[in-house]
């Protein structure tokens, strides 16, 4: 009897233990362990409290546009002011032959600019810049130390003057945006052809012969070498619009005054100039 | 990750010839009217538009305009920096990860310039002329300067954002600030510096920012390529 009773107690104890284990496993799997009251309170507090206390974000007054990769570099040209007088050399390097000197000022008193064509470091690691030069013979290029130049400016314009067709066409990003008829040099004082750039702009002077605006270029007359200030070719207005278009000048490129004023609004200094 | 010596951290330790940034600082209320006008008299046509701002503008639309213009000058500075380096081929010569970073930041800064100019309209200051003193032509100098520039921009925006009075503008300003902070962290990581230097970003006063920017001399007078002398061209 005693052993039968003990066996029954043991069975009951085993069943009770199995039930407890099953309940514990179920509770663990369903997250019912712990303080039910605290858990429920936490769940209640988050969404209801946030909605009641936190306002909506303030809408921004502006949103920047989609960032864009750099493009259109094919039509960008670079120029730089001459920040200190320097020798121009045939090759990058302090021992290369000197072919010219660059000053910081133009004959018109403006800051001298050069068109940047290339850059290279010499064996010592010094950076050199290949530039187009405002010297004779026309089309000259040479190397100057980067340290002799200031910051870089950029333009996306290009002026093309056709001395046969007597036209000037301004391109921006490769597209023509302005064209007009011009006067160019007489046969005995021809407008030089080649690659040049716009070096400065003069306004508000009192000389009707040049019209209201005159651009200075890096081009020089190959025949008028003793002309005051070096015989630089300008692009300017005129007090004789009746002569245009035609071969009427000493080498300068003349435009009607309305046209030179329009060009002034469109063409920045530093613009490359091709004379065909 | 290799961490560079903190002593070698970049500082913008050169440059601002004509005080263009100084003018914008003073327009935003950091200095005296007298100094502001004296600087203006010395030149820097680029930011003369800032002259219309009172020296200590009352909190309101005028101060908001001054602060936005100051931010615009910084965005010009940064956009020009990345764009010049990309145009000159410096970024193309960098390792792939750095190239992606630099192109991305350049595109962001140009977008910031566009939107600030749009918002300011005719009140926007003109783009100044920059001389980056060769750092856009040297990959290492470029990267180190970028870190310093991004850090400085974060400090500037952090200091000025709370002063913007219009809530919508302030919200937009904070959005620019968080993006610039990510730029700064990315730049620091690229350079091998600790991306997040501390647990709290200390905003800089305009005077502090001004001192750093002036030391760079990146902002210079536009070359005087226009004159009034009678031409002596061949005619």
Shape of chain B: globular
Proportion of residues in extended strands of chain B: under 5%
- Note the quaternary state here: heterodimer
The number of E-state strands of chain A comes to 17
Low-confidence stretches of chain A: 33-43
Radius of gyration of chain B: 18 Å
**Annotated CATH homologous superfamily of the largest domain in chain A:** L,D-transpeptidase catalytic domain-like
Strand content of chain A: 25-35%
* C-alpha Rg of chain A (nearest Å): 40 Å
CATH architecture of the largest domain in chain A: Beta Barrel
The major β-sheet of chain B equals: 2 strands, antiparallel
Give the overall pLDDT of chain B as a whole number: 79
Q: Helix amount of chain A, in percent?
A: 10-25%
Please sum up the structure shown:
The complex is a heterodimer of chains A (276) and B (235). Chain A is of the alpha+beta class and 276 residues long.
Description:
- The complex is a heterodimer of chains A (276) and B (235).
- Chain A has 276 residues and is of the alpha+beta class.
- Helix content of chain A is 21%, strand content 33%.
- In chain A, strand 4 (113-121) and strand 5 (127-132) form a beta hairpin.
- Chain A is elongated and about 135 Å long.
- The N and C termini of chain A lie far apart (129 Å).
- Residues 33-43 of chain A have low confidence and may be disordered.
- With 235 residues, chain B is mainly α.
- Chain B contains seven helices and three strands; from the N terminus they run ααααβαααββ.
- Chain B has a two-stranded antiparallel ribbon with strand order 1-2.
- Mean pLDDT of chain B is 79; it is low at 1-25 and 29-56.
- At the A-B interface, strand 12 and strand 14 of A face helix 3, helix 4, strand 1, helix 6 and strand 3 of B.
């Amino acid at each position: 009897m005693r052993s039968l009773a003990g066996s029954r107690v043991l069975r009951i104890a085993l069943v009770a233990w199995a039930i407890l284990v099953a309940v514990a496993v179920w509770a663990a799997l369903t997250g019912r362990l712990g303080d039910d009251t605290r858990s429920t309170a936490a769940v209640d507090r988050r969404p209801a409290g946030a909605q009641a206390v936190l306002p909506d974000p303030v809408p921004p007054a502006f949103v920047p546009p989609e960032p864009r990769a750099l493009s259109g570099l094919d039509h960008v040209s670079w120029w730089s002011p001459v920040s200190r007088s320097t020798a121009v050399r045939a090759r990058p390097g302090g021992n290369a032959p000197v072919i010219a000197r660059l000053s910081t000022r133009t004959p018109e008193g403006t800051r001298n600019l050069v068109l940047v064509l290339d850059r290279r470091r010499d064996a010592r690691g010094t950076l050199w810049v290949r530039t187009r030069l405002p010297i004779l013979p026309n089309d000259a290029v040479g190397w100057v130390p980067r340290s002799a130049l200031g910051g870089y400016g950029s333009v996306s314009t290009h002026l093309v003057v056709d001395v046969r067709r007597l036209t000037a066409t301004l391109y921006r990003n490769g597209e023509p945006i302005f064209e007009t008829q011009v006067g160019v040099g007489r046969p005995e004082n021809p407008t030089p052809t080649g690659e040049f750039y716009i070096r400065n702009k003069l306004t508000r002077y009192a000389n009707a012969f040049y019209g209201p605006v005159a651009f200075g270029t890096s081009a020089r007359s190959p025949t008028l070498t003793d002309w005051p200030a070096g015989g630089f070719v300008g692009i300017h207005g005129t007090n004789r619009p009746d002569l245009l278009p035609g071969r009427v000048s000493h080498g300068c490129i003349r435009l009607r005054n309305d046209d030179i004023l329009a060009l002034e609004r469109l063409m920045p200094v530093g613009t490359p100039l091709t004379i065909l | 990750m290799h961490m560079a010596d903190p002593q070698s951290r970049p500082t913008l330790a050169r440059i601002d010839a004509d005080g263009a940034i100084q003018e914008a600082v003073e327009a935003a209320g950091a200095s005296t009217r007298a100094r502001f006008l004296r600087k203006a008299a010395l030149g820097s046509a680029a930011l003369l538009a800032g002259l219309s701002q009172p020296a200590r503008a009352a909190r309101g639309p005028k101060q908001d305009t001054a602060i936005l213009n100051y931010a615009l000058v910084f965005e010009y500075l940064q956009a020009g920096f990345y764009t010049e380096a990309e145009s000159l081929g410096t970024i193309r010569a960098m390792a792939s990860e750095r190239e992606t970073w630099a192109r991305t930041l350049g595109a962001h800064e140009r977008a910031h310039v566009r939107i600030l100019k749009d918002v300011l309209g005719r009140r926007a200051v003109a783009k100044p002329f920059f001389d980056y003193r060769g750092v856009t032509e040297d990959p290492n100098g470029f990267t180190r300067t970028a870190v310093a520039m991004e850090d400085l921009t974060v400090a500037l925006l952090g200091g000025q954002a709370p002063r913007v009075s219009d809530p919508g503008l302030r919200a937009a300003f904070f959005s620019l600030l968080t993006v610039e902070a990510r730029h700064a962290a990315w730049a620091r990581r690229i350079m091998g510096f600790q991306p997040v230097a501390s647990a709290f970003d200390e905003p800089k006063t305009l005077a502090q920012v001004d001192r750093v920017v002036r030391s760079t001399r990146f902002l210079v007078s536009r070359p005087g390529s226009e004159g009034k002398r009678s031409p002596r061209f061949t005619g």
